[in-house]
Amino acid sequence: MKISVKVPATTANIGPGFDCLGMALPIYNIITIEETVLPGTGIEINVIPETSAIDELSLEHIPLDENSIVYKAVQLLYNSIGQSPSELKINIKSSIPLTRGLGSSASVIVGALVAANELLGKPADEAALLSIASELEGHPDNITPAIVGGLVISSQEEDGTVVYRKLNWPSEWHVTVCIPDFELSTDIARSVLPKEVPMKDAVYNLQRMAMFMDAINNKDAELMKLALRDKLHQPYRMKLIQGLDKIMDNLKHIDSVLGCVISGAGSSILVISQKNDLDKIKNIIRDTWADQNIKCDLRTLNIEEQGAHIISSDE
Ligand code: HSE
Question: Which atom in ligand 1 lies closest to the alpha carbon of residue 20?
């Protein structure tokens, strides 16, 4: 049997929602799991890049053995029903740029889990998939939208349960994903974060998060401009994303820009804006990065409301 699953990219944090806000985007990985008949072949993992944004160098970061998160995801699912995975071939057709803060690792974890679950006759429900995947990833903010689609607020509770609610994103607000040509591994981006933060910074983010909820509910652009700020991770990561301070500075004067935030752990940036001035905004970002010899890929995208789903299943 051979199962293919299509999983969207995700952007996480979105300003104030460190480790809890995430959104699915229309860039996809397709993960195919096939049961092979040859005994003793074990689990074979192949990555097939579908975009030039995924080069040889970034592919080197993907372990293809039992250290692979894909392998671990499949193993955890099998173990949860008292089995061990044996002969499987896993192909990852990858269009989501790697190490750019666009949820590529969440997407392969989710794709492998959903495909393996189907192979096994669906022993895990959505709650179990969310919980296993978030455990592996360490936080649910990319995993949840990769599974359920849309804009989502989520938390992983102490017992491992993931609690989430889908939120409505005002369709008139544009999301421009700015993907630079340099990588930033999540491990490095997390290593610069402090273990503890000042109380006033925690309060600052609480205020912004509450503003965010009200701003999207009431399509309140002025409130959103205040909401799309953060003191929990961005100040520490700014130095890892060359040109970000300049880009933020140069976009400050454009009235239609509601915010410029780091996508997940970076290196991509997310610019939220109203519909006018899109070209001007993109030119500012492209030119600012070009001044620092950084090339980029800028994409204004809709939100993907559909999460991971099976696109083919052959006996
Ligand atoms: N919330 C996570 C972070 C997303 O910012 O580190 C990346 O995995």
Answer: 1
- Locate the domains of the chain by residue range: 2-168+304-314, 173-301
Nearest residue by C-alpha to atom 3 in ligand 1: 265
Topology (CATH level 3) of domain 2-168+304-314? Ribosomal Protein S5; domain 2 (3.30.230)
- Closest by alpha carbon to 136, among 183, 62, 68? 68
Q: pLDDT by residue (tens digit) across 52-109?
A: 665 655 665 666 666 688 888 988 999 988 988 878 889 999 899 988 999 999 999 9
Average pLDDT (219-244) is: 97
Q: Cβ < 6 Å from ligand 1: which residues?
A: 12-13, 18-19, 139, 141-142, 186, 189-190, 233, 264-265
Residue whose CA lies nearest to ligand 1 atom number 1: 19
Instruction: Specify the CATH architecture of the domain 173-301.
Output: 2-Layer Sandwich (3.30)
